[in-house]
Amino acid sequence: MIQTRLFLLKNIIRCLVFFFLIFSATKKRMISFYLLK
Questions:
Q1: Rounded to whole angstroms, how far apart are CA atoms 12 and 6?
Q2: Given pLDDT bands bounded at 50, 70 and 90, which one contains residue 37?
Q3: How far apart are CA 34 and CA 23, in angstroms?
Q4: How far apart are CA 34 and CA 6, in angstroms?
Q5: Which of 31, 29, 10, 9 is nearest to 21 (CA)?
Q6: Each residue's pLDDT tens digit, 8-33
Q7: Nearest-angstrom CA–CA distance, 22 and 16
Q8: pTM for the complete prediction?
Q9: Kindly report the CA angle at 30 between 24 and 33, in degrees rounded to 5?
C-alpha cells in the first residue's frame, strides 16, 4: 500500500515538473515574442 502511494506521488511530482517546464518555456517564448514585437 505504501509503495503504491509512493508510486502515485512520484507520478504526480513528475507531471508537475513537466507542466512547470512547459509553462516556463512558453512564458519565456511569449516574453521574447513581445520584446521582438
A1: 10
A2: confident
A3: 16
A4: 42
A5: 29
A6: 999 999 999 999 999 999 999 998 88
A7: 10
A8: 0.60
A9: 140
